[in-house]
Amino acid sequence: MTDHEDRPAIIRLSHVHHAYGRHQALTDLSFEILKNELAFICGPSGAGKTTLLRLLYAEARPSSGEIAIDGTWLGDIPRSGLPLLRRKFGVIFQDYKLIPGRSVFENVALVLEAAGHRRALISKKVLNVLRMVEMDHHAGTLPIRLSGGEQQRVAVARAVVGDPKIILADEPTGNLDEASAQVVMDLLKVAYIRGATVLIATHDKAFIHRLGGRILHLKQGRLAAFERIEKHHDRTAL
Amino acid sequence: MIARHFKRALEDTLANRFVNAVTMMTIALTVMIVSAAVLVFLNASDWMSAWQQGTRIMAYLRTDAGGAAPALQHSIESIEGVQSAHFIPRDEGLRDLKARMEHPASLFEDLLENPLPDAFEIQLKPSNGSWEQIEAVAERLKSYVEIEDVEYGRQWIVAVRRIAHLFQTLGLALMGFLLVAAVAIVANTTRMVIYSRQEEVETMRLVGATDRFIQAPFLIEGLLQGLIGAVGGIGILFAGYSALAVRIEQNGLAGVVTLRFLSLEHMVLITVASMLVGWLGCYVALKQFLRL
To answer: Any idea what DSSP says for residue A81?
Structure first.
């Protein structure tokens, strides 16, 4: 199933299956996400949303089928090539995955340090993105001292700081208060308007309707339906 | 980048103080034992070398060969490695013997004739004091028909050589065992640290960090553990050495027993080896962990 717009596909799945032991988590998934597309993966708990995201950033390998990211089949990438692949992604994990022993600044800076950026540039970009998520005053704080909403904002900051081509977000507004959810939503919108492809796994319908985009409905690991909610994003506002 | 990894390694070392302290103490203990073995070996070599250089060879002539002494002396002194050959006529030999004995009267009063033969006391050149060279000179002397017997403490030399060889083998085996044990202990400690920071390492991988980027602070930690362990181990050994040296001085043995500590070169070599042990331990642990 493909989108008929002119933009090239940045994510392509071809008959992807994935099983955890005997449990079939994903079955025969084939679809494409276009470059600079805003898309949602919807479905109830256990539908396979998180598993699908894990396959995309190569945390797990599909049991069968193939996945291409930005024109490269993941099966062709050696283990040593995975860091370069992962730098194309900014991932907002459901459990945030912030490093407890490192400050907010260090957690966000990690992405840029791993990519080998210079210290001055890292400081500038990290402080800038922390300002955007209104966490700059917590730059020196350890994640454990932050609320869930604040930790989520830091996770979002880390996902966007490296200007990745693709942003994957796993329930980015789950358990967030209205204000924190709005900050996260704004940031994902900004990243999309700047040219990133954004793929969000969520069952927050209000969130989907406020952002708009293509929706992929997953049911028991199968692609059940496509849907599109049109929304105009003002790119000149940036 | 290296400065950043170094800073991270220092922070991680401080954050995991207890585990790192245990590793450093283990390395310090290993360094101390290995260094002590090296120290004993060096001093023992010094003593043996001094003893060898003082070794003299006695060549006893046949009873009828006294007339050939001047020519024989010339011939002996021309042997390679011989510094001098001093002829001791049998009468002078007996006089010397009597002078050296505490109670000569009871031993020598019943002697009807001098039982000692004429002899040569042969000094070797200081540079030719090895056991092999002493034996070579002795063998050469035995080939003279005028010489009946040659004495140079052969049994002593063989026994000392055997003991020295045994110590050398045991010392090397002990050092090898300790080094392997130290690497294993550092690897286990690092494994514990990595397991306690498994999620952190996983997160680093997921945000695009290479194995090298993840490994660097751990490997620097290993080098630091090795460095601090070496300084500690050599420091403890030096304290022990100083105490022993003071004891020797107080007991008036300073002129008899000469001691020396490890040279700067030895200390640098041991420190580098210790740092390599720390590095290797971390490398082994990381290799196993990151392969998963």
So the answer is: G
pLDDT of residue B284: 86
Q: Which CATH class is domain B56-152?
A: alpha beta
**Which residues of chain A have a CB within 8 Å of the CB of B211?**
80
Closest CA relative to residue B118, chosen from B141, B86, B80? B86
User: Residue B232: what pLDDT?
Assistant: 95
Q: Which of B32, B43, B30 is nearest to B248 (CA)?
A: B43
- CB-CB neighbors (< 8 A) of A114 in chain B: 204, 207-210, 213
DSSP string, B53-73: HT-EEEEEEPGGGGGGHHHHH
To the nearest whole angstrom, how far is the Cα of A230 from the nearest Cα of chain B? Answer: 32
Q: Where are the domains of chain A?
A: 37-47+86-237
Q: What is the DSSP letter of B103?
A: S
Q: Do A110 and B1 touch (CB under 8 A)?
A: no
Instruction: Report the candidate in A104, A105, A122, A123 with the shortest Cα–Cα distance to residue A113.
Output: A122
Please name which of A87, A7, A85, A83 lies closest in space to residue A39, comparing C-alpha atoms: A7
Residue given tokens 């998934």 in the structure block: A29
DSSP 8-state code for residue B12: H
List the domain boundaries for chain B.
2-51+167-291, 56-152
The residue type found at B212 is: R
Determine contact, residues A122/A130, Cβ cutoff 8 Å: no
**From CA A153, how far away is CA A136, in angstroms rounded?**
11
Measure Cα distances from A6 to A34, A37, A40, B78, B199 in Å: 9, 12, 20, 102, 41
Site from B17, B201, B207, B211 to mutate, A interface, most A CB atoms within 10 angstroms: B207
Q: Report yes or no: B2 at the A interface, CB cutoff 8 Å.
A: no
Q: Which CATH superfamily is domain A37-47+86-237 in?
A: P-loop containing nucleotide triphosphate hydrolases (3.40.50.300)
Q: Determine contact: B200 vs chain A, CB below 8 A.
A: yes
CA distance B196 to A100: 12
Q: How many CB atoms lie within 10 A of CB A220?
A: 14
Report the range of poorest mean pLDDT among A13-22, A62-71, B79-88: B79-88
Q: Give the mean pLDDT of chain A.
A: 89
A225 in contact with chain B, both atoms CB, cutoff 8 A: no
Contact B17, B225 (CB under 8 A): no
- Of A63, A67, A77, A72, which Cα lies nearest the Cα of A27? A63
**CA-to-CA distance for B176 and A162, rounded, in angstroms?**
48
In terms of Cβ atoms closer than 10 Å to its own Cβ (0-12, 13-18, 19+), residue A152 is buried
What are A12-65's pLDDT values in tens digits?
999 999 999 889 999 999 999 999 999 999 998 889 999 999 999 999 999 999
Q: Are strands B82-88 and B119-124 parallel, antiparallel or unpaired?
A: antiparallel
Report the Cα B134 to chain-centroid distance in Å. 22
User: Measured between alpha carbons, how far is residue B106 from residues B88, B103, B115 in Å?
Assistant: 24, 7, 16
Least Cα distance to A3 among A189, A231, A214 occurs for A214
